[in-house]
Amino acid sequence: MLNTGVKLFFSLFVFAALTGSIFAQQPPQQQETEDISEEELQMFVDVQMMIQEMNEEVQPKMLETIQEYGFEPQRYIELNQADEMGQEMDADEDEVQRYEQVKESIMDLQQEANDQIAENIEEMGFDMERYNEINMLVQRDPELQQKMMEMMQ
User: Fold this and answer.
1) Is residue 28 within 8 Å of residue 132, measured between CB atoms?
2) How far apart are the C-alpha atoms of 77 and 66, rounded to whole Å?
3) What is the maximum span of the chain, computed from C-alpha positions, in angstroms?
4) What is the pTM of this model?
5) Cβ count near 137 (within 10 Å)
6) Which of 51, 78, 79, 113 has minimal Cβ neighbours within 10 Å of its Cβ?
7) How far is CA 9 from CA 20, 80, 142, in A?
8) Rounded to an integer, what distance in angstroms lies between the CA atom of residue 81 and that of residue 136?
């Protein structure tokens, strides 16, 4: 069983990967919070919930991939953090090569999830540009965040 720190890392890693690369396609224009209708906010909440579900589906696949290449999750996290920070990995050539293979496989899983999320968002009738605008507003407005959290319950 994964410890809480590893679970949190994977959850954040997957969520960031899924949301970051999909929704950073265009910078949103500045808009006021009151320009968000209840219907739009509900659609935004629905998208967030769908992303959480996707996260729950992708996370075990990522873990399985990591283990297939002979890594314990904690070791993969250590290598990934060093890689992301541009630091030298404390690993032999074989381990670095396996890490690169895992990283590529995980990126493929993330891309598949990103594509599915983008497709689902469009099927829900949400324009990606508008989604991005609302996302930025929610990130900046604590009251809007609270309202969104209440709608998610």
Assistant:
1) yes
2) 10
3) 55
4) 0.72
5) 20
6) 78
7) 15, 11, 24
8) 27
**Cβ neighbours of residue 31 closer than 8 Å, sequence gap 6 or more:** 133, 137
Q: How many residues in total does the chain contain? A: 153
Instruction: Give a three-class secondary structure readout of the chain.
Output: CCCHHHHHHHHHHHHHHHHHHHHCCCCCCCCCHHHCCHHHHHHHHHHHHHHHHHHHHHHHHHHHHHHHCCCCHHHHHHHHHHHHCCCCCCCCHHHHHHHHHHHHHHHHHHHHHHHHHHHHHHHCCCCHHHHHHHHHHHHHCHHHHHHHHHHHC
pLDDT tens for the chain, 153 residues long, are 455 555 555 555 555 555 554 555 444 444 455 588 899 999 999 999 999 999 999 999 999 999 999 999 999 999 999 999 999 999 999 999 999 999 999 999 999 999 998 898 889 888 888 888 999 999 999 999 999 999 988
Q: Where are the domains of the chain?
A: 4-22+34-152
pLDDT of residue 31: 45
